[in-house]
Amino acid sequence: MAAITPELSGTYTIDPAHTRIGFVARHAMVTKVRGSFNEFTGTVVIDAEKPEQSTAELAIKVDSIDTRNADRDGHLRTNDFLDLDNYPEITFRSTSAQLVDENNAKLSGDLTIKGVSHPITIDFEFEGAATDPFGNKRLGFEGSHTISRKDYGITWNAPLETGGVLVSDKVVLEFEVSLIKNA
What we know:
Layout: E1 10-14, E2 20-27, E3 31-37, E4 40-46, E5 55-61, E6 65-66, H1 70-77, E7 89-101, E8 104-113, E9 116-131, E10 137-148, E11 167-181
Antiparallel strand pairs: 1-4, 1-11, 2-3, 2-11, 3-6, 4-5, 5-7, 7-8, 8-9, 9-10, 10-11
């Protein structure tokens, strides 16, 4: 089992080629739609000896949203949802970190969507550390958190004839993160 140990401390950059920032929402009350953002940048500072001093920052490009359906992606970019024209980025900036045990951490911070910020806490599981063939030290983490899109002013919906609504209020944010240690 992997463990977060002192030699892993340092500053890391999120590797966009090996990281997935995704989401899941219920559609028409009967199925789930999954999507992801293909463009983002981020930095993580890990202090294994003083985990509370660890930090993370993430900036996601709204126009990179990808649900494998161009019409839906276009609608999600409008003011009905993410309002790309006025809010081109979704951001997360940590405010605290806690090492739960050698394999699990809680990262709290402010998530900003459409100019509205709310505190969230993401539970992360440490997936391991490795040195890749190019000599880069890599760390892997996976986590998720459920938000209410209404909390961020995203209220568009359509009623269904059978009852319920087209898009769920609850959205699960998914993070599958590969970090590369800075030189």
